[in-house]
Each structure stands twice: as structure tokens, then as C-alpha cells.
Design goal:
The chain has helices at residues 7-53, 82-85, 135-180, 196-245, 250-277, 291-297, 302-307, 326-342, 379-391, and strands at 64-66, 71-74, 94-99, 105-115, 118-127, 287-289, 311-316, 320-322, 348-353, 357-362, 394-399, 405-410. The protein is an alpha+beta fold. The strands form three sheets. Strands 1-2-5-4-3 form a five-stranded antiparallel β-sheet, with helices on one face. Strands 7-9-10-12-11 form a five-stranded mixed β-sheet, with helices on one face. Helix 8 (326-342) packs antiparallel against helix 9.
Length: 419
């Protein structure tokens, strides 16, 4: 599924996720930094204080000596509290902190000193809980830090939203202009602080809009020229043929008829081109498809069928109404049949029409060969393809498993059937 959220929302989401991740990360770092700092402070203080008190063992003192409510020193490993002794090696020296299951914490410092019995390892144990924050104080401190973090989060959210809207505003303006300027292809412009990428995008869009506008101007000029400049000489030709027919020249009559047929085909072709070129809504027009209607279309193709010695068969499943301009539908039938007949000299061509589709099947040369004396699969099939695109129909042409090929047009909507 395509994510169609506005750019500002996506930018805000990215910022918020980043801010949340940073807050969580720095919160964890802050929490563990406090614990680490407390431990390091206790160990360093114990390392400074303990050697001063270890001198008592060289002055005939022995066993366990309680220096103050926090600090106790020992001159033997065996007399250490059992919780501490389980975690220390007998020969260990140095400074370390221990956290126990009951949330108690002790700092331990061990060093070799001179006692009345000779060299021995002395131990200093400090009750760290006596100088650390209690749970309530630490909770209150965390609450204060959390409140400050929440304030920073709110400020960051507000700043992120403003920054996101500022960054996305030019893109939103460009989108609105593209949405609201469907009929006009004038250059677009944006105000405010623009990035290099946006300027390049705007330049590219305006370049394409200018090309589209030029194409529309050329298309309108073409349709105007076709509509007026080509129809005029054909009218003159038709009038000249009518005058020549008055001379009753029987030898030239056949040529006059051929010229008349060519003029009719040219006029239909021009009209078809104009219908395809103009942006007109043709969905309100209907064509009644029946055997009689198809037979009338075949009158123009019959001479070609006979000349190529083609056995032609047509079948209309039933009479129905098709939402299509009659001239464009007839252009599809004629061009498909002309292509099939010219590619099937001495063969068979079958036309099948139903409310759902058109199929033209031949056993001619197929798509891989060029028919003799014919220019191949040219403008006729292109016209069929353009008409199908205009009505959003599906057009296909492919080789048969044997000889020839099959051209198909599939209608993509339900037509009203008339019995």
C-alpha cells in the first residue's frame, strides 16, 4: 500500500522518532553514569582513606576495627563478613564495589600491610548505602530529570513541527499549483526559502509544461488544418468528378467511381483523426451492433475480399448497444478486416463479435512475414490501438498456433444488450 501522508507529517514523524530515541539513549546513559560515578567516587575515597587506618595494625591492633559508622577494617581474610568473603579471592588486592540482592552496596579495598604478625593483606569495607541517596531521594531526582526531559521533548516537538512545515511548505505550494492549474500550462513559481533540489525540480516541471503547451498548440493547429485545408480540396475534387460525369464518358466512369470511394475513405480517415486528436467526451454516443450494421461496413471492403480471393465469414452473437462513437467503432472493424484480408491471399478470415469483444482470425502470413504488395501492419493497427486507448479497451494481436494471427478487442465495461 502506498503511503500518501503529506511530506510535513513524514518529516515530523522522522524528527519525533529521532528525538524519542535520543531521549531514551541519553536517559539510560545518565542513569548508568550516576551509578558509575557513585561507585568510582566510593572506590577512590576508600583507596585514599584505608591506607591511613591500616597503620593501626602495625601498632599492635588486630582483628576487626570499626573506624566509624561507615568504615570497618580487617587484618585477616577469614574474619570478613560472609557476603564479602564469597565474592573475593584470598590473594586479591585492589578496590571494588559489590551490589547485593537486598539492594545493599559495599566498597572493598585490599592492600598488603605490616601487622604484628608480619606482612598480611588488610581489608577496608565501607557501607556505601550510608552515603548514597535513598530510594525516595533518587526517585525525586529522576522525576526532576524526567520533567526537564519532557520539557525538552515538548520544545523539540514544537521546533520539529515548525521546521517540518517550513521545509515542506514549498512542496505543498507546488502540489497545490499543479492540482489547481490543470487547464493552464503557464510557468509555475514559488516564494520563500527554496532548496537547490526544489529549484531544479521546478525548472524541470516548467520545462515539461512548456513542451506540453507547445504540443497542444501544434495539435490544435494540426486539427484546424486537417479540418479546413484538407476538406476543401476534397470538396473541389468531388465537384470536378461530378462535372466530368456529365460528359458521359463510359471509359472513365470506373475511374470516377474509384476516385469517389477514395474521397469517402479519406473523409472518414480525416474525421477519425479529428475525433482521436480532440479531447472530447464520446461516452454519451452509442452504436447499435447487428448483422445488418456489420454487413453495411463490409461494402467498402468487399472488393478487396474478392480481389484477394478470401473466404470471409462473420458472426454477431446478438444485437447490442455499445457505448462508442459509430465512426470510431467502424474504423476498428474496417482496419482489422483490411489488415487480415491483405495478409490472407486465398485464405480464410473470420469475424466474431459479442457484447464483450471483437475477434478477427485469419490463416495468412502471420506477424513474422510481410504480405506481398502490402505495407504490413502499419497505420491501420495504430489507429485501432489509439481508439482502444481512448475508450480504455484492451487490444492485442498475436500469431495463431498454426497459420495466421488473431486480433482481439476486449471491452472493459458492461454494454446494454438489446434482443
Amino acid at each position: 500500500m502506498i503511503n500518501t501522508k503529506p511530506m510535513s507529517s513524514k518529516i515530523i514523524q522522522v524528527y519525533l522518532r529521532g528525538i524519542i530515541v535520543l531521549l531514551i539513549f541519553y536517559g539510560a546513559i545518565f542513569y548508568h553514569t550516576i551509578l558509575y560515578t557513585e561507585n568510582q567516587n566510593s572506590e577512590r575515597r576508600l583507596a585514599l582513606v584505608a591506607p591511613y587506618h591500616f597503620k593501626l595494625f602495625s601498632q599492635s591492633s588486630a582483628g576487626e576495627i570499626k573506624i566509624d559508622p561507615m568504615l570497618t577494617i580487617y587484618d585477616q581474610y577469614d574474619i570478613l563478613p560472609s557476603l564479602i568473603k564469597r565474592r573475593l579471592n584470598k590473594d586479591w588486592q585492589g578496590s571494588i564495589s559489590f551490589h547485593f540482592e537486598d539492594d545493599s552496596e559495599y566498597g572493598v579495598y585490599a592492600q598488603q600491610v605490616m601487622t604484628k604478625k608480619g606482612l598480611a593483606i588488610a581489608y577496608a569495607i565501607e557501607d556505601v548505602d550510608a552515603i548514597e541517596w535513598d530510594d525516595m531521594s533518587f526517585a525525586l531526582f529522576q522525576l526532576v530529570i524526567f520533567s526537564l526531559a519532557l520539557l525538552i521533548f515538548v520544545i523539540s516537538v514544537i521546533v520539529s513541527i515548525k521546521m517540518a512545515r517550513r521545509i515542506s511548505e514549498p512542496f505543498s505550494n507546488l502540489t497545490e499549483q499543479l492540482k489547481n492549474n490543470n487547464e493552464s500550462y503557464a510557468p509555475l513559481s514559488l516564494d520563500g526559502e527554496l532548496s537547490l533540489e526544489l529549484v531544479q525540480m521546478l525548472t524541470g516541471i516548467n520545462t515539461y509544461r512548456s513542451r506540453i503547451q507547445d504540443a497542444f498548440i501544434r495539435e490544435k493547429a494540426f486539427t484546424r488544418y486537417v479540418s479546413h485545408e484538407l476538406r476543401t480540396p476534397m470538396t473541389v475534387i468531388r465537384g470536378a468528378i461530378s462535372v466530368l460525369r456529365l460528359q458521359k464518358n463510359e471509359k472513365a466512369e470506373k475511374q470516377y467511381n474509384r476516385i469517389d470511394v477514395a474521397i469517402v475513405e479519406m473523409e472518414q480517415l480525416i474525421h477519425t483523426f479529428l475525433l482521436l486528436a480532440r479531447d472530447e467526451n464520446l461516452l454519451g454516443l452509442n452504436t447499435t451492433v447487428s448483422d445488418e450494421y456489420i454487413s453495411n461496413l463490409l461494402i467498402d471492403i468487399e472488393p478487396t475480399i474478392q480481389a484477394n480471393q478470401v473466404k470471409f465469414h462473420q458472426q454477431v452473437q446478438c444485437e447490442f448497444n455499445l457505448s462508442a462513437q459509430p465512426l470510431l467503432f467502424s474504423a476498428i472493424i474496417k482496419n482489422l478486416l483490411k489488415n487480415a484480408v491483405n495478409c490472407t491471399v486465398g485464405g480464410n478470415v473470420d469475424l466474431f463479435i459479442s457484447p464483450q469483444r471483437i475477434d478477427v482470425i485469419d490463416n495468412g502470413v502471420g506477424l513474422d512475414a510481410k504480405p506481398r504488395g502490402y505495407e504490413g501492419f502499419g497505420i491501420g493497427l495504430n489507429i485501432v490501438r489509439d481508439i482502444c486507448e481512448k475508450y480504455q479497451w484492451q487490444f492485442s494481436i498475436e500469431n495463431n498456433s498454426g497459420d495466421g494471427c488473431t486480433a482481439s478487442v476486449i471491452f472493459n465495461f458492461i454494454n446494454d444488450e438489446n434482443s
